[in-house]
């Protein structure tokens, strides 16, 4: 191994490694050899021991959405592993730290040196959180994308602080609470003192109650779910004018609930209700603009959740999200959720994991564990 220069390296770093790369639009991922990069300022080099899959990953593979700006590229946002090198000036993390991180290439122009679906990947240092030794990386790998999405929804879209807002005087509706984002949103809302109204399949109700959901409703009949949540919120006397919707097809019933409660005029001061807000997590449907306009006419503002596009705003925002993740994992206020399901081992298993996810998964996070026998060390 050559002597470290601009980077601090304490662990063995390979000259080449294997990656499950997307080599052209619409293709299956292909395992290829790639040169292992060295981290620059503000970056980490992460040995990826486990990766989790998200809907954006199979849509990126199968439908080129969002469009990949270059090929080959490496997809994958959720990564768990060990820091093997840090770039100049990085003081928070060091080689040997067990972390989970967002490694997605979206804000890096599709740079194949990023992306979780490979044995080693570059990560922006603010986008990583240390994992306590008693938590398995396979479990914690479910959290990066779900956490920054849930925290972005709560803070940027809904305008909530990351401190307690009251003892159940306010509520949060989470439609699709058994999803990755939904389970983190439930836990975050509980920590804020919000009363959580959640929809999910009945088989997942008991699990969501352990995470902090107070009122659980079956979403299989949307009209019945709307009526049940309205009755519960009115009975509880809770101010419920904010929601996170994780299912694009459920935007209409989510809006209907907030619009009806807003018309009740229940606010902190008992005055006329202000506008309600929905943070929409799923990829916007084709009629999203029309649906948002219809909601706005009912006094409900709908916004799609994503990190700030402006880098100067995004970097501190992501740092805040991952510091929240690290702090709450360490304190036990956040547990990895939903339960991890290991689909397979090795980069070849990632296509299978994406196929399974595309067919539909409930209250589970699909993960793939990686080995490093095929990397070539210096």
Automatic annotation (TrEMBL):
InterPro entries: ADH-like_N (IPR013154), ER (IPR020843), GroES-like_sf (IPR011032), NAD(P)-bd_dom_sf (IPR036291), Trans-enoyl_RdTase-like (IPR047122)
Keyword flag Oxidoreductase: yes
One annotated GO molecular function: oxidoreductase activity, acting on NAD(P)H
Pfam family, one: ADH_N
Top-level division of the source organism's lineage: Eukaryota
Gene3D superfamilies for the chain: Medium-chain alcohol dehydrogenases, catalytic domain (3.90.180.10), NAD(P)-binding Rossmann-like Domain (3.40.50.720)
SUPFAM superfamilies xrefs: GroES-like, NAD(P)-binding Rossmann-fold domains
Annotated ranges, domain Enoyl reductase (ER): 26-368
Keywords in alphabetical order: Oxidoreductase
Family named by the database record: Belongs to the zinc-containing alcohol dehydrogenase family.
Protein name: Chaperonin 10-like protein
Protein source organism: Microdochium bolleyi
């Amino acid at each position: 191994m050559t002597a470290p220069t601009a980077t601090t390296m304490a662990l063995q770093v390979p000259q080449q490694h294997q990656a499950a790369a997307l080599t052209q639009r619409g293709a299956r991922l292909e395992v290829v050899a790639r040169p292992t990069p060295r981290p620059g300022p503000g970056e980490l080099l992460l040995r990826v021991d486990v990766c989790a899959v998200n809907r954006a990953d199979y849509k990126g593979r199968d439908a080129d959405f969002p469009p990949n700006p270059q090929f080959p590229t490496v997809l994958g946002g959720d990564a768990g592993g060990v820091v093997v090198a840090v770039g100049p000036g990085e003081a928070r993390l060091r080689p040997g730290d067990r972390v989970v991180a967002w490694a997605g290439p979206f804000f890096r122009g599709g740079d194949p040196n990023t992306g979780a679906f490979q044995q080693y990947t570059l990560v922006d240092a603010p986008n990583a959180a240390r994992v306590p030794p008693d938590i398995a990386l396979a479990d914690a790998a479910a959290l990066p994308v779900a956490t920054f999405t849930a925290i972005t929804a709560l803070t940027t879209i809904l305008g909530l602080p990351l401190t307690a807002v009251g003892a159940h005087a306010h509520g949060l509706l989470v439609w699709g609470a058994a999803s990755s984002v939904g389970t983190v949103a439930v836990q975050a809302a509980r920590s804020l003192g919000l009363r959580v109204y959640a929809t999910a399949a009945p088989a997942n109700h008991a699990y969501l109650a352990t995470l902090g959901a107070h009122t659980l409703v079956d979403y299989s009949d949307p009209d019945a779910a709307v009526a049940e949540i309205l009755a519960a919120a009115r009975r509880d006397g809770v101010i419920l004018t904010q929601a996170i919707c994780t299912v694009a097809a459920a935007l209409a019933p989510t809006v209907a609930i907030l619009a009806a409660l807003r018309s009740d005029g229940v606010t902190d001061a008992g005055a006329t209700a202000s506008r309600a807000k929905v943070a929409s997590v799923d990829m916007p449907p084709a009629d999203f603009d029309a649906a948002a306009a219809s909601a706005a006419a009912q006094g409900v503002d709908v916004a799609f959740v994503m990190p700030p596009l402006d880098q100067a705003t995004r970097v501190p925002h992501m740092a805040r999200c991952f510091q929240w993740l690290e702090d709450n994992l360490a304190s036990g206020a956040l547990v990895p959720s939903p339960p991890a399901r290991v689909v397979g081992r090795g980069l070849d298993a990632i296509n299978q994991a994406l196929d399974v996810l595309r067919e539909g998964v409930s209250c589970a996070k699909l993960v793939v564990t990686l080995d490093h026998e095929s990397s070539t060390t210096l």
